């Protein structure tokens, strides 16, 4: 367990410790699914996710989902 520290250096260290060589393995399902971080607040999760996504190779893509369908007869 690693205590929370809000500094960018500390957050980057946690990412590096849990996901070493993330840039090289970002597309590997087994690599990504064999690691996890538990955080206490959604704001921490959002920040960490944003920092990790920046490390992924390639161009960012946004996929939209829908919870309902409208049936047009």
Explained architecture:
Helix content is 44%, strand content 0%. The chain has a domain at 8-53. By secondary structure, the protein is mostly helical.
Write the layout of secondary structure elements.
Layout: H1 8-18, H2 22-25, H3 29-33, H4 42-53
Largest sheet: none
Query: What is the straight-line distance between the termini?
Result: 56 Å
Structural class: mainly alpha
Q: Supply the number of helical segments.
A: 4
Give the assembly state of these chains: single chain
In percent, how much strand structure appears in the residues?
under 5%
The residue ranges in which pLDDT falls below 50 over 5 or more consecutive positions are: none
Give helix % range.
Answer: 40-55%
**Element order, helices and strands?**
HHHH
Secondary structure: number of strands: 0
Shape: extended
Mean pLDDT: 85
Rounded to an integer in angstroms, the radius of gyration calculated over CA atoms is 16 Å
Summarize the structure.
This protein is mainly alpha-helical. It is built from 4 helices and no strands.
Output the keywords:
mainly alpha; 0% strand; 73 residues; extended; single chain; 4 helices
